[in-house]
Amino acid sequence: MNKNSPPQEVLDKHRITKFLIENEAIMNWNILKKCILMLILGAAVHVTWIIWKVSVLLMPNLWQWVDLPLLKFQLGLNVVFLVLMLLLIYPCYAWKDRRWAQVVLPYISVGLFVVSLCRDGYVVGVLSPATMTAYVSLVTVGLVLFPRAIVYSAFLPATAYLTGCMFLSQWGYIPYSPVFHITSYYFNNDFWLISMAFFIAPILITCLVLFEILLSQWRYRERLIKKLSQIDPLTNLFNRRQINQCLDQIVQEHEQNYALVLLDLDHFKFINDDYGHHKGDETLVRVAEVLNMHLRDSDVVGRFGGEEFILILHKSNLEQATQAAERCRSAIQALEIYSDDGEKIHVTASFGIAISHAELRPQQLLSQADKALYEAKASGRNRVKTFTLKAQPDTATAPL
Length: 400
What we know:
- The protein is of the alpha+beta class.
- It has 2 domains: 27-230, no CATH class; 240-386, Reverse transcriptase/Diguanylate cyclase domain (Alpha-Beta Plaits, 2-Layer Sandwich), CATH 3.30.70.270.
- It contains 12 helices and 7 strands.
- It has helices at residues 8-23, 31-57, 68-94, 99-124, 129-145, 148-170, 190-230, 240-252, 268-275, 277-293, 318-333, 362-378, and strands at 258-265, 300-305, 308-314, 337-338, 344-345, 349-355, 384-386.
- The strands form 2 sheets. A 5-stranded mixed sheet has the order 2-3-1-6-7, with helices on both faces.
- Strand 2 and strand 3 (308-314) form a beta hairpin.
- The longest helix has 41 residues, at 190-230.
- 28% of the residues are buried.
């Protein structure tokens, strides 16, 4: 080993750190985990406002600049919003795997966050730098983290509220920046109000349009990358990584009625050796097409590695799974694939089936399907076998 190279322990730590950073990117979090982050940041914002208001109350020389009763009322509201945000973190964490929570809680979390900021935005001045900065920042960051429907469901009412406050304050129905005693002539001047709207509106609209375009392109790219990471490039089936995610989803949804089927092409090595790897690839592609053609839309088909495929048959009992496997076996045997010299290439596959049980996890079921596949190979290939607790070979090597 090179004396100047870092020790293996350092390299291992670097790999682990890199893995955690790449797999723990905020954009890859589920929606409720993003809600928790937003609620924590919102709570931190309210803490800073509470500190500022308490500091003002403790300094009598500043009382001349503020409306003390309103300041105290706002302090109480900040405490209420702080408590609500902290309390909402628990259901977002406890129910993170429930579908209804993933639909409902983001709207509640984003709505609570925006309502609290809108209230304080009016109090310090709708057109103040603080309010406008918060407004634009929340919209742009929100569109990155959350689906558009959630963001705009809060953004549009917030826009209407702030716009209404701006005009009502200009017309004299409500005070502008009521927490401060600094209202002056230009706050109630039509020219100043129209000028601010003239400068702010085009910039805001332009930024949002450009951001929407960039966001759409970025999300399309993310969807494309995600799809490519899930698909086997040769057969266009799910790859092993995505199959494992499907099995994890079965665990999360507590699905009970399903079957796992492993199938392996018989003597596939000889196809590659005798007819060339391009014919081996063609065989894999044709088999993938056959599997997709003879299964239901609700079933999952994946390439598990090499010449091995996996089927996840949802809502299937032993009889249904066996019938599906037999259909696929017969269709594979009937494939007409020819070598470059016109010789027919005979293709068959062996199948192993395992049926779900309440006490078994998918990975255990996968092991049972593998044992059934071995039995199909050992029994002469080109057949379907179902895992049973009887007559399982203890030690043996699968035939070539």
